[in-house]
Batch of 2 targets.
Target 1
Amino acid sequence: ETQVWRVDPNAPDLEHTPQIIAAAEKLVQGEIVAFPTETVYGLGGNAKLQDSVRKIYEAKGRPSDNPLIVHVATLEQVRDICTEIHPIAKKLIDTFWPGPLTLVLPSRGEVSNAVTAGLSTVAVRMPSHPVARALILASNLPIAAPSANLSGRPSPTRADHVFYDLDGRIAGIVDGGETGVGVESTVVDCTTTPITILRPGGISKEQLVEVVGAVADDPGLTRSDQIPKAPGMKYKHYAPQAMMYLVPSGKEKICELVATEKNNGRRIGVLTTEENRDSYPDADVVLVCGKRSEPATVAHNLFDVLRRFDQKNVDAIYSETFSEEGIGKAIMNRMSKAAGGRIIE
Ligand code: TXA
Ligand code: MG
């Protein structure tokens, strides 16, 4: 049975509250527990214990060749896990940690082989969410944690998303309310020169460039003839049950598509923004993912909206698209995966 511990993320001295102590005890015993981070909920286990890490893969139905991120609360924990933190990695740490940035660094072999899926590198991140930090400190462990969804589903941004996917499969869920950023961390490979973005996320390329100058993008992210360097990026992900289509040209085209589909007797959903919420009177379901003028709100709501479409029984979803500036890059990466790459020009 899956326990739920409710916590107020703003409560003082979280590390010593009964709920966090209970969740940390489970981790110490080798069980796996979901918890909020500033990006999405993670499904955590002791990164040094093979058996715990196995449980994570099993609960998610995750392919074993897809390595996990190790979550830490101190630099001492990073030094224990990685052989070196070179000056550029150190600069990123000083600027963006704690926060939504994951660094791929050379592994010391201290964490379980299952965490790194046999690679010589390990992905490490120091989350800023007070509940995540408290749980890591209370357990005194490096915590391996992928997003706490069933493999292939949208990442969870609320405890009830986790419950829906993993009830009965994990020891517990620390419910600290909605996450903030809403899309996952940016994954940066620090073993290349220049550093390479393996997954766009909560810290934008523009922000990274400002701090370290040169930053490359993994060509595998955009080119179909290259395999992504982050194994997770090659999988189908975030997909709602209905076929989703991105429509970059926007409102008029979407209205035209809705009209045609309605003639064929299909039930149609539109994924839109605050600014355009009244533009699709003929659609069966219109869901708003945020304000176009405030992309952070779109990132915050995106996965929840994708999950809500599954409750609405639509046959297809037509979606507006966004500029790839800043956080827009991560938004469009997740949206095009949710749409399985289907774009209607
Ligand atoms: O925001 C986040 O990063 C969330 C929260 C829970 O921290 N976690 C998350 O984990 O998104 P996950 O497992 O869903 O995604 C981790 C990504 C995958 O694409 C994986 O392939 C990649 O990081 N990755 C992990 N270790 C790697 C390594 N050593 N080299 C290259 N890619 C790696
Ligand atoms: Mg994930």
Note: The chain has a mean pLDDT of 97.
Target 2
Amino acid sequence: SRPGDHVIVLFGATGDLAKRKLLPGLFHLATAGLLPQRYRIVGTARSRGLSDAGFKQLAHAAVEEFGSTKPTGETWRAFEDALSFATTDHSDPSALVAAVQAAEKEIGGHPQRLFHLAIPPTGFGSTIEMLAASGLAEGARVIIEKPFGTDLASAKALNDTVHRVFDESRIFRIDHFLGKESVDNILAFRFANGLYEPVWNREHIEYMQIDVPETLTIEGRADFYEGTGAFRDMVVTHLLQVLGFVAMEPPTSLSATALRDEKQKVFDSLLPLDPKHVLRGQYDGYRTEPGVAPDSQTETFVALRANVENWRWAGVPFFLRTGKALRAGRQVVTIGFREPVLRMFSVDGCSTPSARRNEIVIDFADPGWISTRFLAKQPGPEMLLGEAEMTFRYADSSGAANALEAYERLILNAMQGDQSLFTTAAGVERLWEISAPLLEHQPPIEPYLPGSWGPSTVGQVTAPYRWHLPEDC
Ligand code: BG6
């Protein structure tokens, strides 16, 4: 349903995220009739003063290049009318205050203020303080981008700063993986079906994998990436959140509190990461990318084994992998089931004697698919088995046209005040806490070739199991 009237203030309005995702996403929400009846979007940035007209032009170009709907017609004109721009000056926020007040006056009534901090993490604290000092924070909600801190101490300090100004119910820490249709569908798949949940435990499942290889390199983001690395950029942020959904107990309801409480229990049960089970890699050529130190120790690849020590999962390894410049760009959860107690069949396939285990594969790269892999008799006079699969593809489902991109979904939810798909203070702190042993004792970097699946030792992380990817043998 449509949220109530809003003034959205977009910090970092001239930045990459705003251009690629946020402005096109807001416009798509407008075309889908999901923006409020009355709204204004005030763009703001520190370094680049733009006029209102300049910002409208920038938004037009961004939607043209990255949007799913073209910026034309009546909807575009209405959207464009709602845009204005103010330069942020932390020592004198009067221009921003004036722009927000003007937007509120145009709308009339009491629109909700929503600040979206699409800025580098180093700017979060000072921006929040400016919002408090200028009075803008009053009654407002705030969306904060990632990464939220770089370790436990910095995440706590940032939470303290934010909590001095906003209470938790008004804070929306974004992890855009949680806004992906097929990540959200993990909840439906598990808890709306009688078929899977009864076997979703250590009795039947032998391993879990969350694998997010990327073909992209760092795409000129050395400034951000050198101090961040694959572990902070992807694992603490996205992959462990997905793990939370895969591993959680059935929540008592779909309320934000119930869902987030169950996710927190998973995080509380995660054992601190053991550096012995972590492989860090760096692709050949990374050190010569512009802005990267010639002796950089930043990892562009990480593969690790995590353990959730609770009644459901004790002893089941969770393998996580992600990296830049790898062979394929995929986002895949694989659930590996135990083999039957007796092996009666011979299998014609990749790895003998039993080929792959039964696996449920959830591909969550939008639009995503889910597949069940099993063994079936091959046609012919012999009892020979081969691998078979049944697949559901999101793109084939009747509502596919209604799909929202992750950011769109999350901005909509923030406007609706629904925190279900946002992370909590306790959650991010716990994830930094279990990361501490690794951050303190980083295993040495191993090189890998661009276009490979990581360092040559990547198979050791999962042994005696194999990575689901690549899918061929
Ligand atoms: C971002 C990371 O949060 O997620 C990037 O900073 C990564 O390094 C990206 O490429 C992947 O997200 P998506 O939306 O492309 O699946």
Note: Residues 176, 214, 216, 233 surround 6-O-phosphono-beta-D-glucopyranose (CB under 6 Å).
